[in-house]
Amino acid sequence: MNSAVEVVAFILGFIAWIMLGVCIPYGYWKVSTVDGSVITTSTIYENLWMTCASDSTGIHNCREFPSLLALSGYLQASRALMITALVAGTLGNVAAMVGLKCTKVGGDNYVFKGRVAGVGGVCYLLEGLCAMVAISWYAFNITREFFDPLYPGTKYEIGPALYIGWCAGTMALIGGSCLCCSCSQGTADKQPPYFRAPMSAAQASRTVKSTSEAGGTNYGRNAYVPLTSPAPPALRSVTELSSSSDRSPAGMAQPDPITP
């Protein structure tokens, strides 16, 4: 995979993790509606941990939920899912940082780095899924109570924290999908070239012996060189003259030796 895509995926996952960290303690998960009210003297808003009220003078009074077991089931589940998303995002950041090919963390083993990046992508996907489920479930209960004409309590509207959470979940899902693709990416082109050690003399002799025993050869037909090469033309002429003189008839008169 292209290193730029991995970097973009890591940036998306890291920003999503920061946005979830802002979203969880943010107070405005739901805000009391002013629909049907002419005069509004106070505004009530809640999150996963407390409920607050502000009056027209700007004074805010907050109170934590007194009992965990007394809370609604969806509120307890939303707490657990958001904490799980934050932990998964933390693990995803560590794994993605190790798995990036543009970093030296983890060495130059690109197969290992690709697998670690895939693990980081799975963590980002888990983060996005947990955040989307928790926030969508919370928003569903808000809208159900708002449109229920028989609901006797205070009606609320969706607060800005839910929009932050939706954006964070979407970014985490996109970043996790990109990193998961690097897990199945072939890394043959990223590997260093294969080096073959030179063959020792003993190995070479064993190879030649096994080849000769098998009746094969390591050389082509045109690779053989004759052991004796033909004599040069000058030497060949002298040799021919001497051989012709030796083959002369016995009755032929020999020239007289030249005396000084």
UniProtKB/TrEMBL annotation:
One GO MF term attached to the UniProt entry: structural molecule activity
Positions of transmembrane segments: 7-28, 80-100, 121-140, 160-181
Signal peptide: none
Region (Disordered): 211-260
Locations listed in the record: Cell junction, Tight junction; Cell membrane
Alphabetically ordered keywords of this record: Cell junction, Cell membrane, Membrane, Tight junction, Transmembrane, Transmembrane helix
PROSITE patterns: CLAUDIN
Bilayer disposition of the protein: Multi-pass membrane protein
Superkingdom of the organism of origin: Eukaryota
Principal place of residence: other
Pfam families xrefs: PMP22_Claudin (PF00822)
Transmembrane helix as UniProt keyword: yes
Any GO CC annotation of this UniProt entry: plasma membrane
The UniProt record lists the keyword Iron: no
Family listed: Belongs to the claudin family.
Name of the featured protein: Claudin-15
Gene behind the chain: CLDN15
